[in-house]
Amino acid sequence: MRVRYLFKSFQAALGCTTRGLSVNGFLFPGNHVIIQRSSLGDAAAQNAMPTKTVRDMVDKFTCMVGASSTYSAATVDRTELLKLLPKSQDELPTRTMSDSWDSAVIPLSTNKCLREKYITFNEGVRIGRLLEDLDVFSAWLCYRHVHNPRQAEHPDLPSPYIIVTGMMDRMDFCKGVKLDPNHDIRISGHVSWTGTSSIETIVHVDQLQDGAWKKVTTAVFVFVARDPLNQGAAIINKLVPNTEEEKKIFEQGVLNKLSRKIVKEESLFKQPPNETEKNLVHELFLSMSNPKQHEFAPKRKPQGSRWISETKIKNIIMCHPEHRNRFGKVFGGFIMRKAIELAWTSALVHSGQRCTISHIDDVVFTRPVEVGSLLYLNAQVVYTDGEHMQVSTKASMMDPVTQTLSLTNIFHFTFAADSAVPPVLPCTYHEAMMYLDGRRHYQLVTGERRYYGQQESNEDRHD
Ligand SMILES: CC(C)(COP(=O)(O)OP(=O)(O)OC[C@H]1O[C@@H](n2cnc3c(N)ncnc32)[C@H](O)[C@@H]1OP(=O)(O)O)[C@@H](O)C(=O)NCCC(=O)NCCS
């Protein structure tokens, strides 16, 4: 409740409505707002075709962090780099949003081999591939943000920072925009907020269609800086907003952090469902049982509907060295690609229709995945609304001997089909909680609710 209070006070100070903040641009429904276009740096340069490709950016990045391009199972000793780490944030110069701003192109129009990797069977673009690029591009922005005077004293040494994906906070796709595999895609963005070791980035994706850049999606990531041995947090430079617009972006970053705390605090694993949710679960129970016979078991599944468990599909992937990131762990973008492709398949199998992704939210990377691990993924449709499906995908590392699972990520995807899909229903209390969690995520991303947890509507009823 305290976090919620803080959130609301901050929001009030910013002059936000309960539906969010609308600043010179794009208003996300729900808690999260992303400024669509900022006037950072040179606006003309921002609108131009980027001068480097994503591949060029990855090569620079690899060089900057001193990663080897060939795999070896032996771990590199990075202890020497510890001396480069600052002891406090005051040792580091402050940075601006323009310092990290950058853009890169995915040259689909000219690179035929690349096009083959991105194209879908029906001549769309594989969103999983795009997620990989967004992840690595956002990490690159974080490295551009960090400026460490101690590094200048040791130009021969690579960056001491290991910057890992902590979460993909939010990604919303523009309605009706279909990516074309024959045209170039531009990724651009900057650091939008910083804590002590955490860094939020905003990344925009546009495609060159009919001679103009058309907005496709915007995503918000949070990265966490770690020491060279990946044993603890590492301090990064403070971000200082300069213009009024930058201040709004930064303040939104503060709100995003508070709203992430609300999601944690109000999780169904910590608190029971709210009153509306309890009633909803009870109504579902009554509609599917036989009260006259005192039959508690769910006997009467409405025609055309499915139990949540019936929608589950699974995949186990061996994580090979080719899937590693620059620090020898499995690349977060690869896990995201595998997760979205499985989720899309579960939406396809459930609905019988080829669906489009409309939102991704609250994707937390709880622990690193080691190369050589078995990555176990399962996806299921947990909530439906007309033609929309909320798909929850879990990724875990599986111990091949004991087959025990250690959770690494949970993904929340919202897909849209062309026509109404079969409703899904919970059969057990556990599934009812999945259903409510799916409903909360769905209502958040579609703007039907303001807060993740205890509050049902956008109005401030219960506080
Ligand atoms: C992200 C990770 C390092 C966080 O570890 P942790 O022990 O919880 O971190 P700490 O408690 O020391 O917190 C450090 C900072 O990260 C922030 N943080 C931690 N987890 C976070 C998350 N999931 N999302 C956003 N911020 C997060 C904290 O708020 C804190 O910020 P601050 O220093 O600015 O105040 C850890 O969960 C991890 O290794 N996850 C896997 C990362 C990964 O493999 N990604 C894919 C490959 S790059």
From TrEMBL:
GO terms for molecular function: fatty acyl-CoA hydrolase activity. Keywords: Hydrolase, Repeat, Transit peptide. GO terms for cellular component: mitochondrion. CDD domains: BFIT_BACH. Residues 103-229, 309-421 form the HotDog ACOT-type domain. GO terms for biological process: acyl-CoA metabolic process. The keyword rRNA-binding does not apply. Pfam families: 4HBT. The keyword Hydrolase applies. InterPro entries: HOTDOG_ACOT (IPR033120), HotDog_dom_sf (IPR029069), Thioestr_dom (IPR006683). PANTHER family: ACYL-COA THIOESTERASE (PTHR12655), ACYL-COENZYME A THIOESTERASE 9, MITOCHONDRIAL (PTHR12655:SF0). Belongs to the acyl coenzyme A hydrolase family. This is Acyl-coenzyme A thioesterase 9, mitochondrial-like. It comes from Hyalella azteca.
